[in-house]
Amino acid sequence: MPQLQILLFASYADAFGSGTVTVSVPDLATVADVVVALRSLPGGGVLPDSPLVAVDRRYRPGAVAVHAGQEIAVIPPVAGG
Amino acid sequence: MRRTALVATPIDPVSLLREVTTDGTGATTLFLGTVRNVNEGREVTGIEYSAYTAMAADELDRIACEAVERFDGVHLAVEHRVGTLGLQEISVAIAVAHARRSPALDASRFVIEELKRRVPIWKCEQYVDGTRHWIDPTSAATSHPIDAP
Questions:
Q1: Which among B54, B134, B143 has CB closest to A11?
Q2: Fold of the A3-75 domain
Q3: Is B110 at the interface with chain A, CB within 8 A?
Q4: Which residues constitute the domain of residue B128?
Q5: What is the pTM of this model?
Q6: Res B30: pLDDT
Q7: CA of A24 to nearest chain B CA: how many angstroms apart?
C-alpha cells in the first residue's frame, strides 16, 4: 500500500502528538481515503466527518486523487484575524 | 497595487497606509484586528497565532488578487501577525485605498471576511488561570464553512 506523509497543525497536531504523520492508503487513493486512514490512528477521533484538506496548498474535496510527493495537509478550523 | 505578508514582528499600520495612498486615492480605510482581554466570558492574557505558513501566504495573496479584480482600482496592503501577542497588539492590518469611499470600504470588508474563512491561521488563547484553548469558529452559529473547489 502506498504511504503518504500528512501535515497537521494546531489542535490536530496536538491531538496526534505530531505535526507530521505517515498513513497507508489504497492504490488510487483520494482525499477521503487519507481522512479514513488518519481516523484509525491514535488521536484520529478529533477529526470531523469532512475536515478541510489541502493538496499542494489548495483546498480540495474528498473525491480528489492524491499521491506520494504531493504536499497534503489536514486543516483544523481556521481562526485568523 | 497589492501586498500581503505574514509577519513575526509588530505591525506598523502607518507604513501600510503610506503604501496604499497615492495622489489619486481619495478614500483610505484601515482595519486592525487586536487582541482583546475577554472571550466567551474568560479572561484572556494573550493569543498565540500559528499558521501553515506557505499556504497561508498563498491564500492571502489569492484573496488580495480577488479583491483587486472585484473592486477595480483598489490599492491594498495586508499583514497578518504570527507568534505570541499580548493584549491590544495588532494581529491583522488591512489598508485599502481607492479614488472613492465605497470600493475602499467594501474591499476591506471582503478581505477580512475571506481571510477569516480561508487562510490557514489558528489562534490559541491563553487565559489568566494558565490554561490555553484552540479557537474553533465553526462551533459558533455564525460560522461559514469553506467550500473546497
A1: B134
A2: Ubiquitin-like (UB roll) (3.10.20)
A3: no
A4: 2-136
A5: 0.92
A6: 98
A7: 23
